[in-house]
């Protein structure tokens, strides 16, 4: 039995049909189908547009936030390094990653406006070797150097400033370049190409410009750190070399100085150049790969970089070496070079040349300043060492004079007496072979007497500097050049050289002996050398004899031509010939008008 009450409300079936409820009399209502309301698709409301723009801007903010985070990471990666070479490489690496480029490079600008360094990323080393030399700074690269403002191109080849690419170079399309400034000056430029999405955007340019600013700070810090370390090394080396030069082990002071310079300056060639006369200089000491080729080289002081530094007493910084390979000192001034005078007591004692090979990094003014300070302190130490050595030599003069007296009064007399005795004995010997051998020994004793007399003169100090002694000048010259020979040349004087030789001939005699000895050093490959200077009547004869490889024809005979001209001025001649027993002989003769004998010095 159903419970009576109010009729139930209608309900909706799952099919969506509305069923009417029954009344109390059981009458059933009719079903009516459901109808849906639809609206036409009209214009979007302002709210919808605002929501769409908000979503789009939010996406842009997220993308920008990601790129800014990448910029911060890139900046941090750049400033973490302190080594300059590592900093430059890191800058290129992070720049490529920051803007999504395939190729990147950093060009460091040289003082002449070209590129002295070009650090590249993206091109394999094998392909870079096939391309050949690195860019010199022309075309678009040069345009950025001339006008240091950002350049952004969609198609690099369509720009009129583009000069094309060399053979084997990979194709490049989009381009973005920005300058890198250090303390307001343009240090170099960042070059990026081939953006992975097609073209560089304005946002890429802004990000790269910001990175370049950070890179300038990192480069400046790295340079200051590098300069600080180099100053510490120069300072430590200065203290070390001063202590060594002032010690009792300062025999090879110039060699030690050259070694320290080569190490501290990272140089390929270091030379110590000393005066060799009024207008000539000679390489006394050399260190480096080309040391054997330049040691003993004689160059004029006029018209050379080394000569200017020697005369002026001021250091010279050369960014690209000698102006011409035809210059006499081009073998010393290779590529980037510092020429530093060695000054002490107000005068120039010599010049130090410090060179790197062509293409290597140049020296900076800071390098020149540190090297000049080091050379100045070393020069003072050298001067003190020379003063101490001179004091020791003065202490030995008395012993040397005593030895000279003993040689003259005792040894020569005994050798001479032995020769007279042997000569007398030879007259009473019937065997011709024995007699011949005795005569040979007598001749050998005569030669020994001549050499002993030369040694006695070398042991005797020069008492007068006003008139000058040719023999002392020649002895000093041999002492100066002795280090160039494996065995010191033997010197023989014959005749009253200082009594008969005109004073105006002394320069010619010194020039002939020096040129003869330098020819032996450069060409002869000899182990023994003898210099014989003799005077008899009105004739001066100089002979330089060696046991080397003999005379080899050469296109450069200017030195011999000068010696021949000197001989002709005195009515003499010059002969350079091979010896029958090997080696060569240079014979120079000069005639003069005999004068009354002057008092021996």
Automatic annotation (TrEMBL):
InterPro entries in the cross-refs: GAF (IPR003018), GAF-like_dom_sf (IPR029016), HATPase_C_sf (IPR036890), HATPase_dom (IPR003594), Sensor_HK_TwoCompSys (IPR050482), Sig_transdc_His_kin_sub3_dim/P (IPR011712)
Xref: SUPFAM superfamilies: ATPase domain of HSP90 chaperone/DNA topoisomerase II/histidine kinase, GAF domain-like
Stretches assigned to the GAF domain: 83-229, 249-392
A GO CC term assigned to this protein in UniProt: membrane
Sorted UniProt keywords: Kinase, Transferase, Two-component regulatory system
Basic residues: bias regions: 1-12
GO MF term list: phosphorelay sensor kinase activity; protein dimerization activity
Ranges where the record places region Disordered: 1-43
Pfam families listed in its UniProt record: GAF_2 (PF13185), HATPase_c (PF02518), HisKA_3 (PF07730)
SMART domains: GAF (SM00065)
Transmembrane helix listed as a keyword: no
Name used for this protein in its record: GAF domain-containing protein
Originating species: Cryobacterium adonitolivorans
């Amino acid at each position: 039995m159903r419970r009576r009450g109010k009729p139930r409300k209608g309900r909706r079936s799952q099919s969506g049909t509305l069923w009417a409820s029954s009344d109390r009399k059981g009458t059933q209502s009719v079903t009516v189908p459901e109808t849906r309301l639809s609206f036409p698709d009209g214009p979007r409301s302002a709210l919808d547009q605002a929501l769409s723009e908000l979503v789009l801007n939010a996406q842009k903010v997220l993308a920008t936030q990601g790129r800014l985070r990448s910029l911060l990471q890139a900046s941090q990666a750049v400033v973490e390094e302190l080594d300059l070479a590592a900093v430059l490489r890191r800058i290129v690496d992070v720049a490529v990653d920051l803007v999504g480029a395939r190729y990147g490079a950093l060009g460091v600008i040289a003082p002449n406006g070209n590129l002295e360094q070009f650090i590249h990323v993206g091109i394999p080393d094998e392909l870079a070797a096939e391309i050949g030399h690195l860019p010199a700074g022309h075309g678009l690269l040069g345009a950025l150097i001339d006008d240091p403002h950002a350049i952004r191109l969609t198609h690099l080849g369509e720009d009129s400033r583009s000069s094309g690419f060399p053979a084997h170079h990979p194709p490049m399309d989009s381009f973005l370049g920005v300058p890198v400034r250090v303390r307001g000056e343009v240090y170099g430029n960042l070059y990026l190409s081939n953006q992975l999405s097609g073209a560089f955007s304005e946002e890429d340019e802004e990000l790269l410009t910001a990175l370049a600013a950070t890179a300038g700070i990192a480069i400046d810090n790295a340079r200051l750190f590098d300069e600080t370390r180099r100053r510490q090394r120069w300072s430590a080396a200065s203290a070390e070399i001063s202590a060594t030069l002032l010690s009792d082990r300062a025999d090879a002071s110039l060699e030690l100085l050259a070694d320290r310079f080569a190490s501290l300056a990272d140089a390929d060639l270091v030379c110590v150049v000393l005066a060799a006369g009024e207008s000539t200089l000679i390489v006394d000491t050399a260190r480096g790969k080309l040391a054997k080729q330049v040691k003993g080289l004689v160059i004029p002081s006029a018209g050379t970089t080394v000569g200017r530094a020697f005369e002026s007493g001021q250091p010279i910084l050369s960014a690209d070496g000698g102006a011409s390979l035809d210059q006499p000192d081009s073998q010393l001034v290779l590529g980037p070079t510092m020429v530093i005078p060695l000054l002490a007591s107000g005068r120039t004692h010599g010049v130090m040349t410090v060179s790197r090979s062509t293409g290597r990094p140049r020296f900076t003014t800071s390098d020149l300043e540190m090297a000049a300070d080091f050379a100045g302190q070393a020069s003072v130490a050298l001067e003190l060492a020379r003063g101490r050595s001179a004091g020791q030599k003065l202490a030995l003069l008395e012993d040397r004079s005593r030895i000279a007296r003993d040689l003259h009064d005792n040894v020569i007399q005994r050798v001479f007496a032995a020769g007279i005795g042997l000569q007398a004995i030879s007259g009473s010997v019937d065997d011709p072979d024995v007699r011949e051998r005795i005569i040979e020994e007598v001749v050998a004793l005569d030669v020994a007497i001549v050499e002993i007399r030369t040694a006695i003169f070398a042991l005797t100090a020069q008492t007068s500097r006003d008139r000058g002694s040719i023999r002392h000048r020649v002895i000093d010259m041999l002492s100066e050049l002795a280090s160039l020979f494996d065995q010191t040349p033997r010197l023989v004087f014959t005749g009253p050289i200082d009594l008969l030789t005109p004073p105006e001939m002394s320069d010619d005699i010194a020039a002939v002996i020096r040129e003869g000895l330098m020819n032996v050093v450069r060409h002869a490959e000899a182990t023994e050398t003898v210099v014989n200077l003799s005077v008899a009547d009105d004739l001066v004869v100089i002979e330089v004899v060696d046991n080397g490889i003999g005379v080899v024809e050469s296109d450069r005979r200017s030195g011999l031509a000068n010696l021949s001209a000197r001989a002709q001025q005195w009515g003499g001649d010059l002969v350079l010939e091979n010896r029958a027993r090997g080696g060569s002989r240079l014979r120079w003769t000069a005639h003069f008008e005999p004068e009354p004998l002057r008092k021996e010095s």
